[in-house]
Please model this.
Amino acid sequence: MSTFKKGYITLVSQAKTNVVGFSAAYSKFVERVTIDQGSKSLISNYSRSIATIALHFNRVPHEISVDEINSYLYRMTVHEKLSISYFKQAVFGLRHWFRLFGMEEKAIAMPSIKKEFTLPVVLSKEECKVLFKAPRWFKHRFLLTFAYAGGLRMNELRLLKIADVDLIRKQVHIRMGKGKKDRYVLLSNLLAQKFQQYLTEVNPKVYLFEGQTPGEPMGERSIQYVINEALQKTDIKKEVSMHTLRHSFATHLLEDGIDIHSIQRLLGHSDIRTTIVYLHVARIKPRLAHSPLDSLYNIAYD
Model:
């Protein structure tokens, strides 16, 4: 169990024990999020901040005034120097909680969250080659290249089963990705050629990338360790995580001339605006507009 998960469970347990009414209210919160098909990560992220606030005021959140909450958030971000990530999770969690208990006015009164426009870190194609070559173990090299080749999210990669890889159709079935949506991504020809070698040498049982326990998927920390260890063997100075490989996948496809809507589908983005960010980092050569009549007859332009 991760340190973060242990932390949120401990905080919730403390709030259940020490804050009157929190246990029943929290059970209602989890029940509603589950019925609404919210993810487990949403519950864990929101629970940590909600429990922290309940413990601070020794009251269930819906009994705390908006002014008290605003003062608390101000003090925690300005004086305690807590991260913007904590601030966002606290606000989002409280909004969800207030709406659950029919307090729409309180939910609306929560501070607005300004969406920051930041460009993703992207590796060049040469940097990708260097990174994929760096790991000592074949399993780790295969893992990094597989993540990049399909533009996979961390959990999509670690929960991928052997049976989800279709060598004949050259497709990978991503089951229950973000937003609980299935999709298919292309299987690289290079990886298809190496696939049987990987199964023979690594001998996974159920999941393509398994941890120490056969039949169980690798943990997120173990996968992040793989890329961190590989980076130490290179001269790459960028801030790189597993998600950087997904950013690089999308950017390189754009640079290869693939249209933005196809990339949106491959990434599993529900909103095209999420995909469009890669237009800001891709190095795309501009093309002069021309009449399609001329291209029909291969008429060259001066």
In short: The chain has two domains: 3-109, 125-280. Residues 149 and 188 are 6 Å apart (CA to CA). Residues 1-6 have pLDDT under 50 and may be disordered.
